[in-house]
């Protein structure tokens, strides 16, 4: 049987579909930044700041807030078509239905771990985010929100004790109250000229912080919703906003929990900076620091050189990676950075 020949139109379409990723400008295409994804379409910000409602070539897969793309105007519809995407240098994902990975945000430079005074600052949660960020070598800041709820010296002392291990590791700690607009200048300095994302548990006040950082957020959200043509309550995916300090922040309402990608024992150890002085000093090379004799890590914990909370979070992750059934929340609720 002879091969069926392609028409000129089909050949042109096939040529365009071979354009998947590109780092340099492409002739005939304009550079753009994905602001949000809604269904099968994107809102793309052009270099002049205008927002365009664009379709996306199917071969590009899922594109999300933070993606750098190349697009062209669609003369027939008056909208646009995204034909290529620049390679990502980082991406935030979470599991979707039936074990599929769902993209949340792309090209993140820094992560703000938001830990609230209420319902509580939990070291295990913080450590999971720290390990996930370390896997990509992404800088982090620990943002302690709702400090207006600290009413006594004892409450401040208890918080200082929880945060001491992170302060000793040199992690930036920013105390803030979105309610009182206190500490926002420090956050803006951390986010300046970067693409960032806030992560943290439900009730941490991430949305309140973003509203405090972007006073006209409601107006911007309404404008973006109008651009989609779907109304003001339809955008549920991540959205990128420009900050007045010059950076960008991606609001990701779908991220509730966060567990780092599974790794082996030696890799997990390397992500605990406070373990570094004691690694290699245990009697056994494959020491799990759980029950083996002459364990340098456990001895450091007993002597107060490693915080017990840090040791406990390490053991919890080690066991979860060995036996996924022990992972809090299970596979269905695992969020991660890639």
UniProtKB/TrEMBL annotation:
Belongs to the TRAFAC class YlqF/YawG GTPase family. RsgA subfamily. InterPro entries: G_CP_dom, NA-bd_OB-fold, P-loop_NTPase, Ribosome_biogen_GTPase_RsgA, RsgA_GTPase_dom. It comes from Thiomicrospira cyclica (strain DSM 14477 / JCM 11371 / ALM1) (Thioalkalimicrobium cyclicum). It is found in: Cytoplasm. Its main location: cytoplasm. One of several proteins that assist in the late maturation steps of the functional core of the 30S ribosomal subunit. Helps release RbfA from mature subunits. May play a role in the assembly of ribosomal proteins into the subunit. Circularly permuted GTPase that catalyzes slow GTP hydrolysis, GTPase activity is stimulated by the 30S ribosomal subunit. The keyword Metal-binding applies. GTP binds at residues 145-148, 200-208. Residues 1-20, 318-338 are annotated as: Disordered. GO terms for cellular component: cytoplasm. Monomer. Associates with 30S ribosomal subunit, binds 16S rRNA. This is Small ribosomal subunit biogenesis GTPase RsgA. The keyword Transmembrane helix does not apply. One of its GO terms (molecular function) is GTPase activity. It is an enzyme of class 3 (hydrolase). Residues 89-258 form the CP-type G domain. Its cofactor is Zn(2+).
